[in-house]
Fold:
Amino acid sequence: MSNAAVSEHQPIPRMKSEDRRELILEAATGVFGQYGYYGATTDQIARAAGVSQPYVVRMFGTKERLFIEVIERALVFILRSFRAVLAEGDQDLRARLGSAYVELLRQRGLLLSLMHSFVLGGDPVIGPRARQGFLEVYAFLRDEAGFGPDDANRFLEGGMLLNTLVGLRMSDEFETSDAANEMLCAALPQKLDLLLELGKSQQADA
Amino acid sequence: MSNAAVSEHQPIPRMKSEDRRELILEAATGVFGQYGYYGATTDQIARAAGVSQPYVVRMFGTKERLFIEVIERALVFILRSFRAVLAEGDQDLRARLGSAYVELLRQRGLLLSLMHSFVLGGDPVIGPRARQGFLEVYAFLRDEAGFGPDDANRFLEGGMLLNTLVGLRMSDEFETSDAANEMLCAALPQKLDLLLELGKSQQADA
DNA sequence: GTAATAGGTAATTGAATGATTACATGCTGA
DNA sequence: TCAGCATGTAATCATTCAATTACCTATTAC
Structure:
């Protein structure tokens, strides 16, 4: 064995808390997306972010506040992504917004964390934020994208089915069930490849 | 105070376990629908059913098995309700099935328990059951109701948005938010009254 | 250089919760 | 009528988990 510099006490570098915050939010988005608000633990999130459990709690105060930050951040991502689409012109807007929505699946857990918040609308803290977030998206579609009530509704319907199919991991059945195959093809006219690809990579994780 | 018959030891009547089972499943459907699989506790369910917590666990073995039974029972309700619609003729089938689906909201927590199972598709036990249930509904639409892939998809899209709006308790904002008002009107062409009515009664519960 | 501050963790705690055990009592058939 | 089974509960256990405390060490400002 080399004896050089073995016990040299080299300092462990530290990150700016703002960066660490972002890492934790990203990890939390993934874990909340998979297990939901109650099912996810601060310890799982901490490990996914590579920090200790107390650090997570200290940085966000409570698990509840962390979850709120996760869904508010998710909403910012969605609206930013939608506005970018809008800035590129208004041809085929519906399809391009849909496409942008599907692309958000790349941010692991983002749409699913939101979905979990949507089904907890009865919660006194989470509920109001979740409703507000949903209504912000609706307001975007109506006021910025120029959709009428029916088009906005159609768009949201498609989004919620997509979220559900992703939550269900329906892509797992793509090859084993004809019905699943057909349903996924109908639900994702384009972008099916993206869903399948992400499905495989997350199987590898687990 | 009257002294008559005070300590008369009158027996506490007992229920057949099959009936009790049904009571518990109904209570569990409501509690799981509100809090989700992880958020609901066996104690809450027991209290809602008017029995002790150990009784719930003993009857179903584990909380997980209880949840599985809840979602399988929910699916039976849905398909029974859909088949009843089918038996009444095939005019306006889409609208009548949609109407029957909304009526299922009367069974408190039924659609929401399912929705919670859908977003836990990554769970090794819940996931497969949830996917199977969803695919059964799809198979009904295609094979029994005679929908094509696109119509079936449209139907499911509408269903998932309805589930989401119910989970969000969006009806709470019906009077306070123009956007919510408009969205709900677009999403539930008929049957809006039912949603609002149920929303009020469940506010009274809480 | 050296306080002071910021970025972190190990150890622990207190409450919640699913599950188990032991026990009590109503019901039913021979 | 009474033995055996079914219906049910009180008490408790073992675990998990969010939160707290106490402490350590980079980094930074002066």
Q: What stands out?
A: Residues 1-7 of chain B have pLDDT under 50 and may be disordered. Chain B touches chain A through 50 residues (CB under 8 Å).
